[in-house]
């Protein structure tokens, strides 16, 4: 799978959450999408050539920093982690 296809699949995954997700999953999906989109946007602005693995690593670093800053309670963090595993499985 190419990086572009992965990004497209992830964006579709986030869009599909609107239809099927609970309110808590919508929150977690939106939160995760923000981190994902930020990593994609940074790579585009900086004109970086990155792999899916590098993109995922950037997202994970961002999430870990957010967790350390106490941005999420444990329940929300668990949902974000679960959804992130589902997004990574799209690759």
TrEMBL record:
Domain of life: Bacteria
Pfam families, sorted: YfcL
Name of protein: YfcL family protein
Organism: Pseudoalteromonas marina
